[in-house]
Amino acid sequence: MIYETLYIMVRVAVHADHTSVSAIVHEVETQSKLSLTDTANINILETEILVSRVHNLKNINHHGTRP
Fold first, then answer.
1. Residue 60 burial (10 A CB sphere; 0-12, 13-18, 19+)
2. In the predicted model, is pLDDT for residue 67 greater than 50?
3. I need a surface site. Which of 14, 36, 40, 57 has the fewest CB within 10 A?
4. Is the whole-model pTM more than 0.90?
């Protein structure tokens, strides 16, 4: 068995009760769980969030449905 590090980028869309982006990011980083499971040939040893960034900042506080 070989040991490798894979970098997987994940996009997460959220609806939050927070009014600040930093509070949303902090809660996701500290309380959310990213789950990857073992497969027949691969054992997942560790996962962590490496980078957090906000893409759609101008729409972060909009309420209602999309047009």
1. middle
2. no
3. 40
4. no
Alpha-carbon distance of 54 to 13, in angstroms, equals 10
User: What are the angstrom distances between the C-alpha of 18 and each of 11, 21, 63?
Assistant: 19, 8, 12
Instruction: Centre a 10 Å sphere on the Cβ of residue 57 and count the other Cβ atoms it contains.
Output: 9
Residue 12, amino acid: V
Q: How confident is the model at residue 5 (pLDDT cuts 50, 70, 90)?
A: confident
CB contact set of 4 (below 8 Å; sequence gap of 6+): none
Which contacts (CB < 8 Å, 24+ apart) does range 21-26 have? 21/54, 21/57, 21/60, 24/60, 25/52, 25/54
